[in-house]
Amino acid sequence: MKFEEPLIFERSQPGRRGFSLHADDWDVPRLDPADIWDDALVRSEKAELPEVSEPEVVRHYTRMSQWNYSIDTGFYPLGSCTMKYNPKINEGVARLPGFAGLHPYMPDTWCQGALELLYNLQGILTEVSGLPHCSLQPAAGAQGELAGLMCIRAFHESRGDTARKKIIVPESAHGTNPASAAFNGFDVIEVKCAEDGRLLPEAVAEVMDETVAGLMITNPSTMGLFETHIGDICQIVHEGGGKVYMDGANMNAILGKTRPGDFGVDVMHYNVHKTFSTPHGGGGPGAGPICVSDDLEPFLPVPRVAKNDDPDAAENERFYLSWEHPQSVGKLKAYWGNFLVYVRGYTYLSEYGHKLEEVTERAVLNANYLRVKLNDVLDVGFEGTCMHEVVFNDNTLQERGVETLDVAKRLIDYGFHPPTVYFPLNIHGALMVEPTETESRATLDAFATTVRTILDEAAENPELLKHAPHNAFRTRLDETRAARQPVLTYKQLVAAREQNDSEAGA
Ligand SMILES: Cc1ncc(COP(=O)(O)O)c(C=O)c1O
């Protein structure tokens, strides 16, 4: 049996230390906390911290890091999440002292380089989106949605058009879309997609009226499909007096190929962490900058990064934060937005900006490669070419007596992170794979071969899958309990163990 390493609190021995610095050997004054802080702030009892040696601390944290799966350790095909490899040069640039050491209260005149980077980034984002104005304030995709919808509402209110209280959201939208609309005080009108998974202009025309503020559409959608009727749909919304919001989180499927502004979109957000390769997880740290049309420009959040075009301007006054926008919806994030995420995104764009089309082609090719490689054993949700991600249904799994979750869990035994499961909701037992542009053909082949192996196993011995994963640090979890009663501290762990023991004994 494998030796199970004790957790750090179990290693604790009174008097053990992780350092051997003797204050007496150095001229270090011994300070009594009571001499420094107010009595009320000084704890009366010793903290219950583990007393451990340095190797024990190092082993504890290194081992915990190895329990995690990450894009740096393997293929991470989560659909809708774009877990692509983040080049390490991004980290190197973000750590340059001139960026990492900036204080947010420094005057503009002291941070010209940082402001120039943000200004240039705004320029790239407007160019790629085809929408001429940009705000870097939002700190996540969902906050970009909030900001964009606030701009739409402010636009209507500025014209006295206050009856527009609804946002149309197709069923193919990402979950944050209806949530952002509702959070903004709009009523959500959900519209169905056609048989082929796409939104039809007729469906929008049917609900479009003078109470509708706009349409919110994820394009390409969370079904991995490009909305081929988007031009007509935008026209219908505009003719009805509304604005079109595009969730641009899936831009890596269209970068450099087409521009939302050109097909009629009024406002969109990017997910910098998805599209331009910065760390993504747990809702951030991210950035969700928005780009808007001329109509919506006055309402953009502040501050914006601006350039002083006066040829006589001093060297240290060329770039500045611009606050003078009286119709702005206001400030959404502390200081400048998530600055170091933008440094990483800008680094990525500096490296790949001249070949964004190639990024797109590889993202789409990789998804279609897996679609074709697996289509004889897994049915797709919607026939035909997909964009950045491919969604399978569970038809062939049911025949084998297993479920989507069983396949996902068995993939862990083979060293792969599971794809997204049971989303989107309108595809039964959805298994959604987004390979991203950063994976090699060899990795995709290995993944496809493994899925086939797992399906063979399912046909022979479905029970093997039902209890997977077998080789992971934790075997099959009660997912509801794990989500509702997470065990996050050592004390909770001890209590949970005691409860398990008493349940087992009962
Ligand atoms: C299509 C889509 N829209 C919106 C979001 C929300 O973005 P964030 O997690 O940055 O709030 C995501 C997240 O990955 C997404 O995939």
Automatic annotation (TrEMBL):
Q: Which domain of life is it from?
A: Bacteria
What are the residue boundaries of the Glycine dehydrogenase C-terminal domain, all occurrences included?
360-460
InterPro entries, sorted:
GcvPB, GDC-P_C, GDC-P_N, GDC_P, PyrdxlP-dep_Trfase, PyrdxlP-dep_Trfase_major, PyrdxlP-dep_Trfase_small
Identify one Gene Ontology CC term for this UniProt entry: cytosol
> GO molecular-function annotation terms?
glycine binding; glycine dehydrogenase (decarboxylating) activity; pyridoxal phosphate binding
GO annotation (BP), single = glycine decarboxylation via glycine cleavage system
E.C. designation(s): 1.4.4.2
Alphabetically sorted, this entry's keywords are: Oxidoreductase, Pyridoxal phosphate
The protein's role, per its UniProt record? The glycine cleavage system catalyzes the degradation of glycine. The P protein binds the alpha-amino group of glycine through its pyridoxal phosphate cofactor; CO(2) is released and the remaining methylamine moiety is then transferred to the lipoamide cofactor of the H protein.
Assembly: The glycine cleavage system is composed of four proteins: P, T, L and H. In this organism, the P 'protein' is a heterodimer of two subunits.
PANTHER family associated with the record: GLYCINE DEHYDROGENASE (DECARBOXYLATING), MITOCHONDRIAL (PTHR11773:SF1), GLYCINE DEHYDROGENASE, DECARBOXYLATING (PTHR11773)
Protein name (record): Probable glycine dehydrogenase (decarboxylating) subunit 2
Q: What is the lineage of its organism?
A: Bacteria, Deltaproteobacteria, Bradymonadales, Bradymonadaceae, Persicimonas
